[in-house]
Amino acid sequence: MIEGLKPYAEYKESDIPWARSLPSEWQTERAKWLFTKMDRPVRPQDEVVTCFRDGMVTLRKNRRLRGFTEATVESGYQGIRKGDLVIHGMDAFAGAIGVSDSDGKGTPVYNVCQPRPGVVARYYAHTVREMSRAQWILALAKGIRERSTDFRYEMFGNQFVPLPPPDEQAAIVRFLDHANRKIDGFIRAKRKLIGLLNEQKQAIIHRAVTRGLNPDVPLKPSGIPWIGDIPAHWEVRRLRTIVSRIEQGVSPQATGFLAVGNTWGVLKSGCVNHGTFRQFEHKQLSADFEIDPAIIVKVDDVLISRACGSPRLVGSVGKVKALDYKLILSDKTFRAVFRPIVYTDFMVYAMNSIYYRQQVEQAISGAEGMANNLPLSELKSFTFAIPPLAEASVIASRLDRELAQFNTAIARTEREIALMQEYRTRLTADIVTGKLDVRAAAAKLPDLPVATLDEPVVDEALEDIDTEDSP
Predict the structure, then answer these.
(1) Is residue 58 part of a domain?
(2) Which of 4, 227, 259, 363 gives 222 a disulfide partner, CB atoms 3.0 to 4.6 angstroms apart?
(3) pLDDT in the model for residue 256
(4) Is the pLDDT of residue 251 over 60?
(5) Which one, of 174, 232, 127, 231, lies nearest residue 444 by Cα?
(6) pTM score
(7) What is the rounded CA–CA span in Å between residue 324 and residue 470?
(8) 206 DSSP assignment
(9) 247 lies in the same domain as 366
(10) Long-range contacts: 279-282, Cβ < 8 Å, 24+?
(11) What residues make up the domain containing 254?
């Protein structure tokens, strides 16, 4: 649908730092003349509206019912109306900006902005998100580190933003709605493929770590419902008996950027999502932070997610196979140091099995949302089927070979998703700043069906991303 898109005929220099040239027919205006910052009272019927980092602003029940902490006292809550531009005061730098699809109420951390006549709020949701991507929001912020930034509406209101004619604002929104619908469909299909590949991996891993490789080996009851029968010569042992120690990191102040050069980074809770260590999931530490050698991350470390916004990710386990950054453990990450009586690579597979996951789900404590955590005492009590060292080594090597094709396919598919997301970002930036003219293309597009808000609009893949979206 982007074939034939061309730039506007003429451009002019603008007074906007992150959009130095605009179509000659566009104007610029200070944001405060386009929106009115609201402070409405809350009505008895109002339900909680949440602003997410992916730009969705909706009733919490429409997105998902788990994964949030509930406020015991709704101090300072304000009314939100359908069509309001909502900007998260702490997460605006990360893209938590969008137009509410519902009436409701939100926390005082939200900047609730009512568009003035002739202003298409959804165009400015895209535009302000582009300000976020260009790090202009971060530059305006009062704070000094991620999630302590303070988006001040007064400062934002004095910034110049593009002001296309209202019909062009509407055309841009229409075009991006269609483009995003196609992109979302592509990503959803790819995530479904990844899910199917992971299911196949899980089946292979589960059989290998509970029955071994010999289909004719004599079996015995393990005495553990979620493990079932195991080879007669295997043992059943609790984790505390096969580790020498389990370590935990700290929670220092950090920026939203990656570590560079000689700087250090602290791991984020999502660094071992789904059994794979992702070293870029970290935040840069300040230069004056004193590094404790005891919590430095090293190659071959086995890391466990202790706490996470999504319950599905709590307890995720991954092995550090390579390091390009200098990193330390966070307080949301355990490091398990195994005794020589077990083969570490086998244990990593066992801790990515179905029976391990069942134990994690039973052990997760606390309320929903960021309170989801795996207590150390519970983790140490987990039960595992343990083969002799030599046999464990053979099983792990076989799994390495059998799962290599699955891992390659998953990595390739994840890269396709990342490329499509990058394409979406670049396309949106080019359109909202007038580098591409979509007026003619938008006029030919059919109307999109209206979403039914009575049904949850959950994309299950979002449950598997630690977005820290709780306000």
Answers:
(1) yes
(2) 227
(3) 67
(4) yes
(5) 174
(6) 0.80
(7) 31
(8) H
(9) yes
(10) 279/320, 279/322, 279/323, 279/324, 279/325, 279/327, 280/325, 282/258, 282/325, 282/327
(11) 215-381
